[in-house]
Design a protein that fits this description.
alpha+beta; single chain; 161 residues; 5 helices; 6-stranded mixed sheet
């Protein structure tokens, strides 16, 4: 095997690992398996929500904080993630994923249909070091607002501890 072939194999392996980390994140999140989910992340990993509404942190750092943030997600949303598409990147440690969630906000019984884009970086051990999560908080707020309560722009949503 030539040096170029070794580099290509390493690039393909790393790209596959990054995409696998994203797919596992979605699978474990949908299954409500938070204890397993948090192990996908490096100990000092960062999870960011650029469009986080009031009441949801924009940046969470470290496994303990990640676990605390997601601990109530299984009680809040019953979802599955569908239509997963990965976009090619120059950096094989970086995965850009586009997908939808479809399901129900459990406290209200309302539908929860969300479109997401995630930008995810892994380390040499294929652990997520940085997860940038683009989702529409207005969709979550509406799904979690009881039917008898009128919508308002100042509503927030929380599913963490």
């Amino acid at each position: 095997m030539t040096v170029k072939e070794d580099a290509d194999t390493n690039t393909d392996t790393r790209r596959s690992a990054a995409q696998h980390a994203v797919a596992e994140h979605l699978r474990l999140t949908a299954a409500g398996r938070t204890e397993e989910w948090v192990k996908l992340f490096a100990p000092d990993a960062v999870l960011e929500f650029p469009y986080a509404p009031v009441g949801v942190p924009q940046r969470i750092v470290g496994r303990d904080a990640l676990f605390e943030h997601m601990t109530h997600f299984p009680e809040t949303f019953d979802v599955e993630f569908v239509d997963l598409v990965f976009h090619e990147t120059v950096d094989p440690s970086l995965a850009i994923a586009e997908f939808r969630s479809t399901g129900t906000a459990l406290p209200t019984g309302k539908p929860y249909e969300q479109t997401c884009i995630s930008v995810v970086r892994i380390d040499d051990d294929a652990l997520i070091t940085h997860y940038l999560d683009y989702w529409n908080p207005l969709v979550a707020i509406e799904a979690l607002t009881p039917g008898h309560v009128p919508s308002a722009p100042d509503r927030s949503v929380a599913f963490g501890g």
